Structures are given as structure tokens and as C-alpha cells.
Amino acid sequence: MRRLMLLRHAKSDWPAGVADFERPLAARGHEAAPLMARYMAAEGLVPDLALVSSARRTRETWGLLAPALGDVKVKFEPRIYNASVDGLLSLLSEVGEDVGTVLVVGHNPGMAELTLLLSGAGDRRALAAVQRKYPTAALSVVRLDGGWADVAPFKGRLERFVTPKSLGGEDD
């Protein structure tokens, strides 16, 4: 069994004259990311490997998550930025079989689309919530059978979908 966790970056700011790739986190993002990190640590949702988009807002999100999660191998991956679902699947197929749990810190629509594509079963309320909206700093947890090279549509089970609002924070 493998576990894939997909976290959309925390709320970002839109400063004038700053390219999308270089957008920093907003104040709400600086609140939501540690909230999600505490939840993940308390629930034992600690990855063996974190694949983090190399965009500034995802790197900053990871920087706020990492202290609560302990010693996690991290790879900053430029292919996650603006990745299609096929691109994300390709990236996952490269993960070593010794890795049990992967966290991808990325962007929408990729995080929502990949969650829905992989989740052939699971918590129906959580699936409906993902279909409605995948807010910033939201986390989906998908259980996968087989190896990373076997990840395929509808072969996973959505175990949970958590948003900052569900933990007492704010969603966008």
C-alpha cells in the first residue's frame, strides 16, 4: 500500500509587477500552512518524500510545514508548476519503490484533478467536497495499492480531504 498526499499551496499574495512563479504567501497563507502542518503531524500524516513545486508560494508553504513534520526528504520539482494530471502521474511513476508515503505540494487545478482521477472509491462526502472546491492549503489523502509505477486512474481510495476551515481556520 502507498499513500499519496496532495496539498495545494497556502494562500498567496498578488503583488503588482511580480511574476506568477515568484508570488509569495499572503498573511492568511502564513496562518493556514502551520495549521495544516500541526494537523498532519498529529494525525501521523508524515511523508517519506515531499515533492514540492519550485514556485515561491509552494516553497514557502513547505518551509512552514517542514518543522512540524520532522526529517523528511524533499525534492523541489519544477515540473509540478503548471503540471497536467498526466505530468503529475509521470512524476509519481519515478518515485522509488522504497517510498511508502509521498506528499506533493503543488497547485490547482492539478491537485484537485489528480485527487478525483485517482479516487475510484473512498469517502463520498470528501469526494463531493473536492469536486466543489479545493481551496488553498487543502489536503487530500489517497491510498493506493501497488507500486508508484502502477498508479492509475480510479485505482485509489480517498481517505480524507481536509481544509483550513475544517480545522478552524479560513478557506479562500
Structural overview:
The chain has 5 helices and 7 strands, in the order βαβαβαβαβαββ. By secondary structure, it is an alpha/beta fold. It has a single domain, classed as Rossmann fold (3-Layer(aba) Sandwich). The N and C termini lie far apart (33 Å). It has a 7-stranded mixed sheet. α1 runs parallel beside α2. The protein has helices at residues 27-42, 56-69, 85-93, 110-118, 124-132, and strands at 2-8, 49-53, 73-77, 101-106, 119-122, 139-144, 156-162. The mean pLDDT is 95.
The main sheet orders its strands as 3-2-4-1-6-7-5
> What is the H-and-E element order?
EHEHEHEHEHEE
Indicate the proportion of strand residues: 15-25%
Shape: globular
Percentage of residues assigned to helices: 25-40%
| Mean pLDDT metric | 95
Low-confidence segments, given as residue ranges, are: none
Instruction: State the CATH architecture.
Output: 3-Layer(aba) Sandwich
Structural class: alpha/beta
What's the N-to-C terminus distance? 33 Å
The DSSP helix count reads 5
**CATH domain class:** Alpha Beta
- Sketch the major β-sheet: 7 strands, mixed
- Could you say how many structural domains there are in total? 1
